[in-house]
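The protein record quoted in full:

***
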Amino acid sequence: MSIRISGGSLKGRLIGSPHPAKGVRPTTERVKLAIFSILGDYRVQDTNVLDLYSCTGALGFEAISRGALSVDMVEKNFKNYKLIVDNVKKLEIQDGVQVHKSTVSDYLNLTKKRYGLILVDPPFDLNEWEKVLMNIGEKDILIKEGVLVAEHPTRVFLQNNYGNLEMQDQRKYGDSLISFFGVSDG
């Protein structure tokens, strides 16, 4: 099965996806289009992007296709990591994308970078929301004007605040909720 990039300079290009497995659920094209439509080009262009739980890299590839300055993709599963690396080569975007074979927790604990857009889309069976969002909110990884986008099942309720992160919007698409966080003023 292939996944299509839906916008930007790579629009229409196909990337490989993992074989169906328990907990593997790539973001649907409808949800990807909704996320990037809500964000608008100005939130993506010329910004550094962090794609956590990358799986296929689809969200990060959408960001680089739509003008992101750079994308760091974090994936711990070796097969998915290899798939992303292969897709980066296939799309010829090695200059703008770095792929990290790491757990999200380890990456967040070690990184010194700051991002204008953070995409958080773990497998639906994984419930690390409190730990991951609090880590991001306390470490000041998201820049003041930045946005964190979290895709999660409707059965998972996220708090309004995690450290300096504050929920600003939430949208429902089937059994997915998309929550948008920004940096709070106080």
